[in-house]
Each structure stands twice: as structure tokens, then as C-alpha cells.
Amino acid sequence: QVQLVESGGGLVQPGGSLRLSCAASGRTFNNYALGWFRQAPGKEREFVAAINRSGGTTYYRDSVKGRFTISRSNAENTVYLQMNSLKPEDTAVYYCAARVWNKSTYDYWGQGTQVTVSS
Questions:
Q1: What DSSP letter does each residue of 29-81 carry, written as one string?
Q2: Residue-level pLDDT at 26
Q3: Per-residue CA distances from 95 to 82, 119 (Å)
Q4: Which residue of 10, 20, 37, 106 could cross-link 99, Cys pair, CB 3.0 to 4.6 Å?
Q5: Would you put residue 76 in left (φ > 0), alpha (ψ -120 to 50) or beta?
Q6: Is residue 90 helix, strand or coil?
Q7: Pairing relation of β-strands 113-117 and 10-12?
Q8: End-to-end CA distance of the chain
Q9: Are 5 and 95 in contact (CB under 8 A)?
Q10: What is the rounded distance in angstroms from the CA atom of residue 95 to the CA atom of residue 38?
């Protein structure tokens, strides 16, 4: 089992940057693939980015490609989401999630961190 705690959210102007962090507990961090999801008010939660357990393969939703970068440090049990060129439509609560590497569903979720992009 793994517990996830996000940090790094906040208020930023359009065009600005934020880096989200998600710290994980447990000794088997590198057995998990990790993802970032977001949920805007009145909308369903959506996938943002994912990374495999080694960090060698990443996936992004189309609207964030070229602006967001997911990375992980297995030594520090942490996954990051670097967000650049932020837009008002990126405003949402961002969640990190973990799934055992050979499973398809994310079973572990953090509590979320608010990202607001506004002038």
C-alpha cells in the first residue's frame, strides 16, 4: 500500500509556471506507475499525465503536451508535474495517483492540491 501527499499548488497568472510534487510513503515506490489527474468545478476528473515505474515512458493528454512534464525520483519517492505556460483552463484540483505497475487501475490517490490560473 502507498500513501500520497501532493503539494505545490497555488495561484498563478496566465503564462506562469508551477511545479507540483507528490510524496509517497512505503518502500516499494518503484513498483508503481504514477499519474496526475485534475478536476475542474462542475467537470469530471480527467487524466493529465502518467509515468511508468522506471521513469522512461511518459504519457500526456493532448492539451498539455509541450507545456507539462511529469518526472519521478525513485530515490526520493516523489513524482513531479512541472507546468509551464499555464492557461485559465488548467485551473483545477490536481491529484496524483498510483497503480501497481502491472495493473490498469489507479488504486491509490492523494488528497489533491488546488491550481488556479487567473490574472
A1: GGGEEEEEEEE-TTS--EEEEEE-TTS--EEE-GGGTTTEEEEEETTTTEEEE
A2: 78
A3: 14, 23
A4: 106
A5: alpha
A6: helix
A7: parallel
A8: 40
A9: no
A10: 6
**100-111 residue pLDDT tens:** 999 999 999 999
E strand or H helix at 21, and its extent? strand 18-24
Q: Which helix (H) or strand (E) holds 92?
A: strand 92-100
Please write the tens of the pLDDT for every residue from 62-90. 999 999 999 999 999 999 999 999 999 99
DSSP state of 88: G
Cell of 9: 499548488
Residues in CB range of 43: below 8 A, 6 or more apart: 92
Mean pLDDT of the chain: 96
The one-letter amino acid at 21: S
